[in-house]
């Protein structure tokens, strides 16, 4: 399966490179619609989608097999060994982006002009980074990074969301945060340390198992490690196609606005996939359609999504697992125990000042993993042991607990807590207002 995955990724990269070479603005309307149809045939190709699903599902099977083998053969150490064996993967695209930004922050420290600009620039000033940093090693390195990762971005699975290549400000803000962190670890040293943890765990298993058991372990463990890396590669590569879909949609939106069919270019994102070919023909009141869908989106913006939907029916609400007034329990996905203060992240704006806090989120969107080198720990209401966030938390060595229902409501900025990424327990030590030990964490705030 790892070999098959590499073939699929190469194919998608070739397709994406071909599509990127198409000058969309030079196509007439009919040619643009034909291009959209051809792209749709590629993007929604059943065989490719099936293979991508196999890549994602294969790691779950490998994980379950390895977990059972270790539980049977090293019962006292199985849980810890599983997490240690799944770190030090090194080649994850998200990790490469993070390490690249960490390295660039060191470059900025050594260049007075880059350091001065990044230390003082606000959101408006960041838009001027190219002329402000022209001729610096930082800008050269940043542009190189954008060439590889410009198709990624916040909430990148949503075609409405801008890519880093369109708006690099989120990456520059991350560099600003890194610059404010005096204890930021050297990326090479960090990678070496995580790989040593993996090597030590492998040696422990090797010293215990013999013969056929060791051989079986080696095969399954190697497959799982490759598959975990390929899950992140899968997102990196398939996002190339999502980004091209965004390019096509924006070109359609530009033409529709120019023709007076839509009010704004980005209104095109309120048109369904199957409706896109008809927009430029102006056969419907697309302004009215967009207004109605925008209103519907606003109406549903604050509706809490159910934990589980079965065949269109919402399952019973899953209550938080409260073991005491001052504790919650989730799923530990990255080992380690620490005490620290809570920082609730509800939007990108909340990341502006971080320094070792335990961040609490509803779900860990991949671009937010860029924060992992400067946080103490992570708590999320949603997630799993094989999610992108869990894989990257282990890669960075950040203790993490996911599947903690209502964590965003029950915890508050400044709360003192203890997080155990091995057991999945979160214990409240005190509220910001001074209330200690059990400020009725389980109660509605």
What do you see in this structure?
- Helices cover 52% and strands 9% of the residues.
- The chain is an alpha/beta fold.
- The protein folds into 3 domains: 2-85 and 209-296, no CATH class; 93-189, no CATH class; 327-430, Glucose Oxidase, domain 1 (3-Layer(bba) Sandwich).
- Strands 3-10-9-5-6-7-8-4 form an 8-stranded mixed β-sheet, covered by helices on one side. A two-stranded antiparallel sheet has the order 1-2.
- A hairpin with a 4-residue loop joins strand 9 and strand 10.
- Helix 5 (93-110) runs antiparallel to helix 9.
- The radius of gyration is 24 Å and the shape is globular.
Topology:
Layout: H1 2-20, H2 29-43, H3 46-73, H4 78-85, H5 93-110, H6 112-120, H7 123-126, H8 129-133, H9 137-149, H10 169-180, H11 187-208, H12 211-258, H13 276-279, H14 286-300, E1 309-310, E2 313-314, E3 327-329, E4 331-334, E5 337-344, E6 358-361, E7 377-380, H15 388-396, E8 400-402, H16 407-410, E9 416-420, E10 425-430
**Rounded average pLDDT:** 88
Number of strands: 10
Structural class: alpha/beta
What sort of overall outline do the alpha carbons produce when their principal axes are compared?
globular
Strand order of the largest sheet: 3-10-9-5-6-7-8-4
- The run of helices and strands is HHHHHHHHHHHHHHEEEEEEEHEHEE
Terminal Cα span:
48 Å
User: How much β-strand is present in the residues?
Assistant: 5-15%
Biggest β-sheet: count, sense, barrel? Answer: 8 strands, mixed
Low-confidence runs:
none
Rg: 24 Å
Query: In the residues, how many domains can be counted?
Result: 3
Q: Provide the helix percentage.
A: 40-55%
Separate helix tally: 16
């Amino acid at each position: 399966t790892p070999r098959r995955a590499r073939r699929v990724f190469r194919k998608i990269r070739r397709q994406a490179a071909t599509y990127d070479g198409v000058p969309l603005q030079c196509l007439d309307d009919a040619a643009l619609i034909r291009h959209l149809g051809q792209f749709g045939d590629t993007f929604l190709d059943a065989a490719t989608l099936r293979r991508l699903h196999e890549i994602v599902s294969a790691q779950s099977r490998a994980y379950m097999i390895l977990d059972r083998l270790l539980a049977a053969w090293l019962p006292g150490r199985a849980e810890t060994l599983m997490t240690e064996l799944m770190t030090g993967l090194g080649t994850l695209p998200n990790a490469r982006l993070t390490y690249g930004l960490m390295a660039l922050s060191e470059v900025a420290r050594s260049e007075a002009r880059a350091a001065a600009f990044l230390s003082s620039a606000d959101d408006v000033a960041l838009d001027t980074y190219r002329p402000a940093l022209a001729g610096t090693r930082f800008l050269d390195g940043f542009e190189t990074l954008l060439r590889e990762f410009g198709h990624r971005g916040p909430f990148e699975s949503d075609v409405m969301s801008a890519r880093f290549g369109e708006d690099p400000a989120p990456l520059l803000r991350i560099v600003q945060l890194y610059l404010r962190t005096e204890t930021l670890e050297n990326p090479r040293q960090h990678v070496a340390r995580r790989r040593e943890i993996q090597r030590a765990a492998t040696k422990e298993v090797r010293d215990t198992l013999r013969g056929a058991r060791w051989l079986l372990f080696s095969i399954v463990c190697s497959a799982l490690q490759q598959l975990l890396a390929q899950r992140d590669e899968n997102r990196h590569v398939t996002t190339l196609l999502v980004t091209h879909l965004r390019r096509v949609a924006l070109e359609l939106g530009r033409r529709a606005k120019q023709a007076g069919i839509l009010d704004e270019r980005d209104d095109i994102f309120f048109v369904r996939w199957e409706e896109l070919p008809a927009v430029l023909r102006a056969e419907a009141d697309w302004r009215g359609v967009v207004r109605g869908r925008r209103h519907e989106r606003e109406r549903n913006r604050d509706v809490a999504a159910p934990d589980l939907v079965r065949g269109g029916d919402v399952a019973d609400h899953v209550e938080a697992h409260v073991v005491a007034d001052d504790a919650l329990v989730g799923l530990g996905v990255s080992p380690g125990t620490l005490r620290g203060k809570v920082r609730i992240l509800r939007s990108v704006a909340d990341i502006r000042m971080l320094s070792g806090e335990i961040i609490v989120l509803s779900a860990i969107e991949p671009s937010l993993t860029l924060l992992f080198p400067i946080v103490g720990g992570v708590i999320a209401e949603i997630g799993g042991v094989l999610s992108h966030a869990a894989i990257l938390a282990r890669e960075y060595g950040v203790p993490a607990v996911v599947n903690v229902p209502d964590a965003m409501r029950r915890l508050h900025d400044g709360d003192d807590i203890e997080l155990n990424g091995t057991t999945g327990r979160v214990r409240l030590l005190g509220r910001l207002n001074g209330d200690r030990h059990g400020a009725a964490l389980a109660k509605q705030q």
